[in-house]
Structure formats: structure tokens, C-alpha cells
Please model this.
Amino acid sequence: MLWGNRDLKTANTGTVQIFANGLCTGTSTLFQTESKIGEYIIADSKKYLIVRIDSNTSVQVKASTLGAAVAAVGAGNSYVIQQAPAYRDWETDRKSTRLNSSHSAKSRMPSSA
Model:
């Protein structure tokens, strides 16, 4: 099954509270079975990227916008999980975007042009 950028899982249980440090705690939640790292939690009209799942009632999140701070969400908020591709932290994986130093720069234009 292919996912879309707006596919929501609606079988979520419980409620959540999200703290400014990125800790998201749940009451009667099933994070380990209902969510995956790289998916998003949407609560109180705010979107958060799941970066770690500690238990059925605890996950660590980041703001979904690069460079933004996590906005706190009070206890008792309902939530949904939005499916997304696997998360890749480009900041810590910068080597994958660099050219190998053994590559030589070649001109695309012939020297006779």
C-alpha cells in the first residue's frame, strides 16, 4: 500500500500532553503499536515529528518545521497519527551529500567549443 502525504491513522486511543522539551506523554495511548518513528503526531492543530518511541505512553518529538521550537500542548488533547516516509536526519548525515574526493571535476563542454 502506498502512503500519501495526508494519510491519517484514525484508530488512535487516549489523549496526549506535549512538553516544550519534546517529551510527549499519553494517557491510555498505544504508541508502540499505533505509530512509527518518522510519522507525525497532530494535536491541538500542531504537527510534531516522532523521533523516538519509549513506551506505549511516551514518545520524543521534534517540531515538524526545520528550526522551529516544539510548542507545548496541554494534557487531555486528542491526537491523530499522520503517516510519512522514514525520517532521515540530514543534519547529522552530511557526508552522504558530499562528493567523494576521488571524483574529478570534468567539464561538460568539449574544449574545442
